[in-house]
Design a protein that fits this description.
Structural class: mainly alpha
Order of helices and strands: HHHHHHH
Distance between the termini: 43 Å
Strand content: under 5%
Helix content: over 70%
Shape: elongated
Number of helices: 7
Number of strands: 0
Radius of gyration: 22 Å
Largest sheet: none
Length: 180
């Protein structure tokens, strides 16, 4: 009978360990593990930058997947707004009519991007992660803007930051939608 109790105790201990390890993998009190961030960010152009982007929000350390979705979309919205404001300023300061038109197109594209991100933020807040499907369009908008500017335009760096932030949001939300 003693060996039966040891087997039962060992089985219970094993179940507890498995549950504890799975729970700590994405437990709100522990936050998203580095393994999860690495899995998500390994799909982007630059894993290290993706991780830095997500970890720039202090909530990431204690976030569950739902909150990570929201954080990634808030970061993308913040970056899109910053880029939009940059293009607005450049457009207002440009005396070249052709460049002003190109920058005006970028302003319109980034307005559209901000609208799409606001819709995705609403879906994330409602935990409707599977409906967040249009993030890939945001990279197209950013590329369309940059490709419409002269090759010597000083906007390449901010566009790259925007693209990397959007990529982070894309892969976070793909991961979340497949995990929930």
């Amino acid at each position: 009978m003693a060996s039966g109790n040891h087997f039962f105790s060992a089985a219970i201990l094993l179940v507890q360990l498995v549950l504890a390890s799975n729970y700590s993998f994405i437990c709100p009190s522990y936050g998203i593990s580095q393994d999860v961030l690495a899995t998500i960010c390994s799909q982007t152009q630059n894993q290290e930058t993706c991780e830095k982007i997500l970890e720039s929000d202090p909530r990431t350390k204690s976030a569950d997947l739902s909150l990570l979705s929201l954080i990634s979309l808030e970061l993308a919205t913040k970056q899109a707004t910053k880029t939009y404001n940059t293009f607005m300023g450049l457009q207002g300061n440009s005396s070249d009519p052709s460049l002003r038109r190109s920058l005006g197109k970028c302003v319109g594209l980034y307005q559209d991007m901000k609208r799409k991100l606001q819709a995705d933020l609403r879906l994330s807040r409602q935990k409707q992660f599977k409906k967040i499907t249009g993030l890939g369009q945001l990279t197209t908008l950013a590329y369309n803007c940059e490709n419409g500017l002269p090759s010597d335009s000083p906007t390449a760096a901010i566009t790259e930051n925007t693209l990397l932030t959007i990529q982070s949001a894309i892969y976070v939300n793909e991961f979340v939608s497949h995990s929930t």
